[in-house]
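tool=predict chain=A
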Amino acid sequence: MLKPQRSVLLRTGPKPKIDSDPHPADRYVGRQIATVRVQSDVSQAQLARSIGISFQQLQKYENARNRVSASMLYEIATSLHVPVGRFFEGLPGNDEARVEARPLPVDERLDFIASAEGRRLIEGLVNLPPRVRGRVSSLTPAVGQDRALQDTTPDSETAGESPPAECKTG
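tool=predict ok
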């Protein structure tokens, strides 16, 4: 006895590729939104409120986890008082003599600012009195220099050293 056959769907082309990484242009535009926002001294919450979205959605735009529609980009530009084209300035291939697009450089500072850790640090700094904020900001390069010295000298030599003069409080 013959078994009944099930219908089989035949693919006529290759399986669609699902790209998990955002397009470099989406990353670039997201970074530019973050850059202009920070330069304008506007928080994510303020910008999101002014354009009628949640700050989490704005984070997704800035991190390129979600693409920004043309109308939303227009709203963002209007709220930040910049032309829409500002978000595309410097984008490789964004000129009349278009050449093969190269991968965009990653700006670690913007990635840090957009991270949860970076946002917490900035919020903490903003809440400090201006004089203390200035002292903390002058301390960070000294900590970086101290860390670089520790990486180049054995631990036994750096043990017990006093902090650099610019770190001492008087």
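Confidence is low (pLDDT under 50) at residues 156-170. Residues 147 and 153 are 10 Å apart (CA to CA).
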